[in-house]
Write a structure and sequence with these properties.
The protein is an all-beta fold. The protein has a domain of about 80 residues: Jelly Rolls (Sandwich), CATH 2.60.120. The chain is about 0% helix and about 50% strand. It has a five-stranded antiparallel β-sheet, with no helix packed on it. A four-stranded antiparallel β-sheet has the order 3-8-5-6, with no helix packed on it. The two termini are about 15 Å apart.
Length: about 110
Amino acid sequence: MTEPVRIKNITHGQAVQLASLVTYAPGQVVSRTLAQNDAMSMTLFALEAGESISTHTTPGDAFVYVLDGRVILEIGDRRVPTMAGEATVMPADIPHALYAEERFKMLLVVVK
């Protein structure tokens, strides 16, 4: 049985600017987990320009919503430029990677 999803690391009951919950750090990929269980995960990320997340796969669809900046998503053999206010779904089990074209922040939701 899947455990219930509990949202953490964010104030409940009020409007929040998601981008303000993670900060940029030179040479680092900064993340903040908001929810995680066997069925899904929800994480905020901040990457400085030139940083990346190397090619990998996930067992679920990965929904990327860019909060700030620009990123190049590589999904299989396709490059998908994505900027603030845009979302892209990276399908389950398809190799993908992220390259910070400029510093960017994203909300990543993986649904298994």
